Every structure is written in structure tokens, then in C-alpha cells.
Amino acid sequence: MGAQGHCDPRFARVRKVFENHFAKGEELGAAFAVHLDGEPVVDLWDGVADRHTGRPWERDTPALTYSCTKAVTAAVALMLAERGEVDLSAPVAEVWPEFAAGGKERVTVEHLLTHQSGLPVIEEDVPAEEFGDQPAIAARLAAQRPMWEPGTAHGYHALTYGFLVGEVVRRVTGKSVGEFVAAEIAGPRGLDLWLGAPPDVIARAARLSAGERRTPGGATGSDGPEAVRAAAELPGRGPGDPMWEMARAALDKGSVMNRAMGNPSPGKVKGGANNPAIMRAGWPAMGLVTTARGLAGFYRDLLAGEIVRPKTLQDALRPRVGGPDRVMFLDSAFGLGFMRPATMFFTPGKGAATAFGHPGLGGFVGLGDHRYGLAVAYTMNRMANAVAGSMRGYRLLEAVYDSLP
Question: Which residues form a coiled coil (predicted)?
């Protein structure tokens, strides 16, 4: 029958790509939304929200979008900076005195937003009973020493980004990031965005399913040299090559990369990220539950100057760091909380200089492009073998850019 929803004839190739993913068996359920200069031009959905029950993906089916969350958390920090409530260049310890422990007295809020604080890992294992207590998790980070001198390198703070920035927000406003988003971003704009999903949203949320069980580079079983080469998918390359190093780290349970992405671990609760405890926890680095329409609407309003002033956004998109990532090995680039195009946020050529946003583990995408007036979001429930982005998401982005005049 084809995908449900609306697609402007100018973006017919987007519908074709979206439907082809289902025809080829690459999707279970998914949604894709695009705004062009503030107008909705694509709003498609198809498939099942739960492969076990066959519950269909509906127009308003939300999903946990992992690191797409980071862009929304960044917007909260920018709003507070605009109001003069947070000085991004000031030490974190000015609003969070305990954070100065371990030689971190000169770490700034900007260091947190740009993944330069040297705190990509929570050293102590976070127990499941603490998952809903963000201040307690933040306190663990406040007591740690940084892994590198803050401000001298960047490395992806996969989970700690949210607890760090979130505690700054809480110290300044008395609210969690999720409470702030509900009161000042999602609520006033009618956006389907939740950081800390209520029971009715959790009940209709998509249930995420793993794809082929492989490491981020592609290895499936052994931890020997042959598996590492297979994982890198780059025959003849070895130590020093970013893909090889990333694959090797993926196979090492004790690597900084795996520790950064695995503590606190949703795997400690039954059902993992599908467990209600995870969806209501509202972790500000990976807990955003949203629809494709809601996430695209966030970028639409951001581009329109309705969340922060255009000048504030323009400055936030200025790349602060770029190049090899100390945690992920691949090239990454960041403005203030927003990813900029690089290997970890791969975008079509037309958007290479002007796109921004944040992908999410397994293939989720949230993207804005101020040059073309684009606001784009892709949600799904068949997780790709990808730390950030996926070929499905990339093909859809490519079709969007190719549809522009």
C-alpha cells in the first residue's frame, strides 16, 4: 500500500527511498519528517511499532532517539546563556562548587558542551536503582579527575554530556532539563518531545529492536586479529587507522569507548531502552522520546529564531573542535552542543558546510540546515549497526538534498 502521510511532489524521491527501505526488509517501523522554510513538505510513516504484537506505527508514534537528545539539551543551555543565567565561558564550579574537585576548577561550561572536559566515563558503576536520580549520577562525575587536560582535546561524552550539562541547568534553574523542555520548548510549541516520558507516551512508544548483532565496525564474534580486520572492513589497514582503532575498541569491553557508552547501562533493566524506567528517566544525553514530526519541529523553530535568537544560534554553530575524537577515533566536530558534519555526522555534500544537529545510536537523525531552510528528522525501531547515523538515514538525507532546486 505504500507509506502513509504526506509528501510534496517536489520530494517524490524521498517517498521512493523511504518505501524502498521497507520493500527491501530494512525497516520494521519508521517515520520521516521534513520542513522547508518552515513549511511541512514530508511527513511519512509506515510499518510496525512493535514487532512482537504487530502494533502499527501510527502518525503519533514516538521513539527513544538516543543522542538526538543532545541537541535539545544544548538548546536549553543556549536559552539560559541568552538570558544571562549561565556564562558559557565561566568555570562550571561557579554554579556547581563540588565540581571543582580533582583539578577541574577551570573547566568551563563550554568545555562540557564541546566534549572537552575529559570526563567521558563514569568510573564507578551506576546501579539501576540510581537511574532516575540524575543529581546522584552527576555527583559521581564531580568527584572524578579528568582523563585529559580539559580544553586540550575532545572526545565524545556519550552519556556524561547530559549529566554534566543537566546538573548545570538544575543548579541554575532548579529544574531538570526535561522539566525545562516541557515548560519552555515542547509545551508552548505543541511539540511531541519528552525528556522523561509520561505513562501514556511510553505505552504507545515504538519498541526498539536490534538489527544484526555486530560491533560498530562489523565484527560478529571472535576477538582475535581476524575479527578486528573484519570489523574495520578495510583490508590491509591496521593500527593508526581510525576505523581499525574504533573496531578494536568495540571488541574491548574495557575500552574508553565502551565504558563511555555503557555506564549507566540500560541493559541492567529488563527490556533495555524499552523499559519504562529508561524512558521516564529523561537522561539529557540519550533519553529524548519524540516523533519525527516533533523533532523536525524543534529544528524548524530553532531555525526560525523562536527558541534562541538567530545570532545565538549562528555563534553556537561555529565549530569549536574538530578532528580525531579521543573516544570514538573517527573525526567528529562540535559547535556548542551541536554536531557539525564530519565522519561521525556524515551528511550529503550540499550540507557539508551548513548542516548541524545530532544523530542517535542505531541510526536516528535530527538535522537543521540554515542555508536551505531545512529541518529534518528520522525515527525508526530497527536499530542499525551504527554508533551514529546509518545508511538508511543517509539515503533519506541525500534524497532530501537532491530534491532541492
Answer: none
- For 297-319, letters b (16+ CB in 10 Å) and e give bbbbbbbeeebbeeebbeebbeb
The helices-and-strands tally (H runs, E runs) of the chain is: 15, 15
**Is 67 designated active site?**
yes
Give the DSSP H/E element, type plus range, for residue 340: strand 339-340
Segments making up each domain of the chain, as ranges: 215-268
- Mapped onto helix, strand or coil, the DSSP state of residue 265 is coil
Is the Cβ–Cβ distance between 243 and 233 less than 8 Å?
A: yes
DSSP assignment letter at 338: -
Q: What is the pTM of this model?
A: 0.94
Find the mean pLDDT for residues 71-91.
98
Q: Given this model, what pLDDT does residue 233 score?
A: 52
Residue type, 190: G
Q: Of 209, 190, 211, 179, which is closest to residue 60 (Cα–Cα)?
A: 190
Distance (Å) of CA 32 to CA 8, 50, 102, 202, 212: 13, 18, 45, 20, 23
At residue 213, the pLDDT reads 43
Q: Please tell me the distance from the alpha carbon of residue 6 to that of residue 49, in angstroms, as a whole number.
A: 19
- The reported pLDDT for the residue numbered 226 is 45
Provide the phi-psi class of 5: left if phi over 0, else alpha when psi is between -120 and 50, else beta. left
Q: How far apart are the first and last CA of the chain?
A: 29
pLDDT category, 222, cuts 50, 70, 90?
very low
Catalytic residue among 67, 117, 332, 390: 67
Query: What are the two backbone dihedrals, phi and then psi, of residue 170, each rounded to the nearest 5 degrees?
Result: -65, -40
